Every structure is written in C-alpha cells, then in structure tokens.
Amino acid sequence: MTLQISDLRQRPEFFDTVADRVWRAWWKPAGKPLEQVSSGLAEMMKGDPIPFAIVAHAGSEFLGSTLGIASDLADRPQYGPWVAAVWVEPQHRLQQVGRALVGHAAQVLFARGFARIYLCSSPRRRNFYVRQGWTPIEENVGTHSQTVYVMDAATGSP
C-alpha cells in the first residue's frame, strides 16, 4: 500500500465518503442528518486557512480522513484551531494511517501560521496521541469525558 495524503479539494471524489464517515462516527449518534454534515463539509472546501479536510488514500482507495477546524469542543471555546474527526477505515487501522493524517493536519495548521493547536479524544486514545507528541492539558471534558491535548509549533510536531 502506498499511502498518499491529499487535501480533499484536490481529491473531491472522496467527498461523499468523508461526509459519510464523519456522520456515522460523530453526528448520526447525536441524531443529526447526513445532509447537515455534507453541507458543513462543502463549506470546508472553501476554507482558508481553516477549515479544511484531508484524506489518506492509496490511489483511488479511501483509507481515512481528518479535519482542521476552528473549534471542536463547545466546552472549550477558548481553544483553537483543532485537528478533528480523525477517521481510519477499520481494515487500515494500525498501519500508520492515523498517525500520517494527524501529523499532516498539524503541519498544515503550523504552516498556515498557527503557533498552538488542539485535539481532543476519548481517554482510550490517549497513548496514540501522546506518542505523537501531543500533551494532555485537560481530562474528562464535556459530556463524552474527552481528553484535550495541545501541541506548539515551537516545541515540536507529530
């Protein structure tokens, strides 16, 4: 497998798949319609410097995606921007796809002038992010007991 990372604007054929995965993982359980996710993702296609969407693929095969957004956690509006909605297809997990997506999104945010970036996850994903250089700054945040992480451009990158 030859992993490639692309901006979704450069690979629009993955648009529906990205919308579907984001919806199934985070929005469908909250009762939100797929159309709402698709509409928001369409707005991301216009983002500069944020929001943006990135896809991991092997040629025409979708492997995963992530987003760069202004805010990901309503309980922490003071933080931003965020690497968010990291998704890797189940058959491609544990193959460095997630690491590549998160690292690329962080580098894009740093390159666009952001000195500090954030990410949140369920507590069970803590080691995955810490091993990439993310520093936990808060635990048990919000209704899903998220861990909030930070990374500074000056101190390193994933």
Explain what this protein looks like in three dimensions.
By secondary structure, the protein is α+β, with helices and mostly antiparallel strands. The chain has a single domain, classed as 3-Layer(aba) Sandwich (Aminopeptidase), CATH 3.40.630.30. It contains four helices and seven strands, in the order βααβββαβαββ. The strands form two sheets. The protein has a four-stranded antiparallel β-sheet, sandwiched between helices. A three-stranded antiparallel β-sheet has the order 5-7-6. A hairpin with a 4-residue loop joins β6 and β7 (146-152). The longest helix is centred in the middle third of the chain and has 15 residues, at 97-111. The model has no long low-confidence stretch (mean pLDDT 93).
Mean pLDDT: 93
Report how far the terminal alpha carbons are from each other.
Answer: 22 Å
Quickly count the helices. 4
Provide the structure class: alpha+beta
Instruction: Give the C-level CATH assignment.
Output: Alpha Beta
**Order of strands, widest sheet:** 1-2-3-4
Mind telling me which CATH architecture this is?
Answer: 3-Layer(aba) Sandwich
CATH superfamily placement: Gcn5-related N-acetyltransferase (GNAT)
Give the radius of gyration.
15 Å
Strand percentage lies at 25-35%
Quaternary organisation: single chain
What is the general shape? globular
| CATH topology value | Aminopeptidase
Provide the fold topology.
Layout: E1 4-7, H1 15-27, H2 34-44, E2 52-58, E3 61-69, E4 82-88, H3 97-111, E5 116-121, H4 126-130, E6 135-141, E7 146-152
Antiparallel strand pairs: 1-2, 2-3, 3-4, 5-7, 6-7
